[in-house]
């Protein structure tokens, strides 16, 4: 399975678990139907998390869930600035401004990448 796909499947699993109510269809769009920019962003963030884990010799596992989620969120924000000249505010919101379901999903993504690495 590709790196980006692992990221996307962890996102979908997290949204399914943490989103209050019925998530927007775009939140759970399967990998094969995900726009190319989003696939590229997912693969890039996966790579950043993987590199962070490996360069820490696995000690990144000692981070709190919040720290793990924050790392994913900031990497994603950088990708949004890369792919969009003027990204939607929700795409680049600071950690404190993200809804709890998204914070939890970002932490789940980090942990899914840890398992894959």
**Record field, number of beta strands:** 0
Structural class, by secondary structure, is: mainly alpha
Catalogue the unreliable spans: none
Total individual domains: 1
Shape: globular
* Helix proportion range: 55-70%
Continuous helix count: 4
Order of helices and strands: HHHH
Classify the beta-strand content into a percent band.
Answer: under 5%
Mean pLDDT: 96
What's the main sheet like? Answer: none
What would the keywords be for this entry?
mainly alpha, 4 helices, 62% helix
How would you describe this protein?
The chain contains 4 helices and no strands. The chain is mainly α and 117 residues long. It has one domain (3-116). Helix 1 crosses helix 2 (36-55). The protein starts with a helix and ends with a helix. The model has no long low-confidence stretch (mean pLDDT 96).
Question: What is the fold's blueprint, element by element?
Answer:
Blueprint: H1 3-18, H2 36-55, H3 65-83, H4 100-116
Helix pairs in contact: 1-2, 1-4, 2-3, 3-4
Question: Short description, anyone?
Answer:
The relative contact order is 0.20.
């Amino acid at each position: 399975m590709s790196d980006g796909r692992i990221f996307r499947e962890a996102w979908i699993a997290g949204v399914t678990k943490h989103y209050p109510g019925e998530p927007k269809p775009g939140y759970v769009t399967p990998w094969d139907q995900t726009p190319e920019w989003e696939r590229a962003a997912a693969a890039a963030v996966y790579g950043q998390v993987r590199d962070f884990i490996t360069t820490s010799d696995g000690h990144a596992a000692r981070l709190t869930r919040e720290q793990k989620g924050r790392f994913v969120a900031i990497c994603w924000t950088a990708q949004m600035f890369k792919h969009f000249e003027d990204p939607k505010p929700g795409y680049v919101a600071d950690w404190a401004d993200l809804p709890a379901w998204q914070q939890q999903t970002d932490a789940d993504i980090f942990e899914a990448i840890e398992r894959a690495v």
